[in-house]
Amino acid sequence: MKKPTLLVLAAGMGSRYGGLKQLDPVGPSGETILDYSVFDAVRAGFGRVVFVIRKDFEEVFRRHVGSKYAGHLEVDYAFQSIDDLPDGFTRPEERAKPWGTAHAIRAARGVVDAPFAAINADDFYGRDAMARVGAFLQGDRAPMQFAMVGYLLERTLSDFGSVARGICSVTPDGRLADVEEMTKLVRVPGGVENREDGKPVVSLTGRERVSMNLWGFGPELFDALEARFPAWLKANAANPKAEWYIPFVVNELVRERKAEVSLLPTESVWFGVTYREDKPFVVESIRKLVEAGEYPEHLF
């Protein structure tokens, strides 16, 4: 059985943050958030990492990111292009941004041929979370049997602005029933609110399980993505801001009973640099984990 692959979605430049935040140091020896994800993946049994990036920053990414993992696990690349569309489709002239996380995962269809975990490059997921998805991918898994690591909403917020999260509904036996994307979540006294323009405010407790885009998939997902992308394009291509999110695809597959998704609960605290002001908190949080012995001072 092949060791699982870590698929890192790293094509975004982080427009709100103001730079290529995948390369921003946060650890005591200059480590990036991404370094911690790769380190956790290695000790969870992953044998390969594939970075989904844009072709135009391949050279800097290979030099500053991929090279440091040599000797620890196999490193490869897939390239997300806005023009990578099914036969018969072309990019509308007004379309300037990529097509979303499902499209980013689809970009690896010719590169990944083993069970894989998909993550964002700029999120700190934690040792427990990576261990749980690693164990799932290395266990007995039927085709179209996937997993999602579920975080407590209150442990995934920013104090400096709203965030987007997938709010999960879970069946009594621990299966994912639904993921509802909420894009304007803010902390308020006593809980969390979603404040989207033109929609009623949704009040939450903060104890809901949310998706942070840490998924466990089999390579059969690529066939499902390829089959569904044309219909999504027909319905959304005219909207220059529409994004094809991976939770949307998973929801469809679950509702149609074509896939089962286990929710793997974790008590890990998620760290992310959504806004530049988040960075000091992330640096301090990682420093505490190093002092507690969760990570060495030098990762690679």
How far apart the termini lie comes to: 27 Å
Over all CA atoms, what is the radius of gyration?
A: 18 Å
Elements, N to C (H/E): EHEHEHEEHEEEEEEHHEEH
Helix proportion: 25-40%
Structural class: alpha/beta
Number of domains: 1
Could you outline the blueprint of secondary structure elements for this entry?
Elements: E1 5-9, H1 33-43, E2 48-53, H2 58-64, E3 74-79, H3 101-106, E4 116-120, E5 123-124, H4 127-138, E6 145-152, E7 163-170, E8 176-188, E9 191-194, E10 202-204, E11 209-217, H5 221-236, H6 246-255, E12 260-265, E13 271-272, H7 279-291
Parallel strand pairs: 1-2, 1-4, 2-3, 6-12
Antiparallel strand pairs: 4-11, 5-13, 6-11, 7-8, 7-11, 8-9, 9-10
Helix pairs in contact: 1-4
Quick overview of this protein structure:
The chain has 300 residues and is α/β, with parallel strands linked by helices. The chain has helices spanning 33-43, 58-64, 101-106, 127-138, 221-236, 246-255, 279-291; strands spanning 5-9, 48-53, 74-79, 116-120, 123-124, 145-152, 163-170, 176-188, 191-194, 202-204, 209-217, 260-265, 271-272.
Provide a descriptive summary of the structure in words.
- There is one protein chain.
- The protein starts with a strand and ends in a 9-residue tail after the last helix.
- It has helices at residues 33-43, 58-64, 101-106, 127-138, 221-236, 246-255, 279-291; strands spanning 5-9, 48-53, 74-79, 116-120, 123-124, 145-152, 163-170, 176-188, 191-194, 202-204, 209-217, 260-265, 271-272.
- It is built from seven helices and 13 strands.
- It has a single domain (5-291), classed as Spore Coat Polysaccharide Biosynthesis Protein SpsA, Chain A, CATH 3.90.550.10.
- The radius of gyration is 18 Å and the shape is globular.
- It is an alpha/beta fold and 300 residues long.
- It is 25% helix and 26% strand.
- The strands form two sheets. Strands 1, 2, 3, 4, 6, 7, 8, 9, 10, 11 and 12 form an eleven-stranded mixed β-sheet that branches. Strands 5-13 form a two-stranded antiparallel sheet.
- The longest helix is centred in the last third of the chain and has 16 residues, at 221-236.
- Helix 1 crosses helix 4 (127-138).
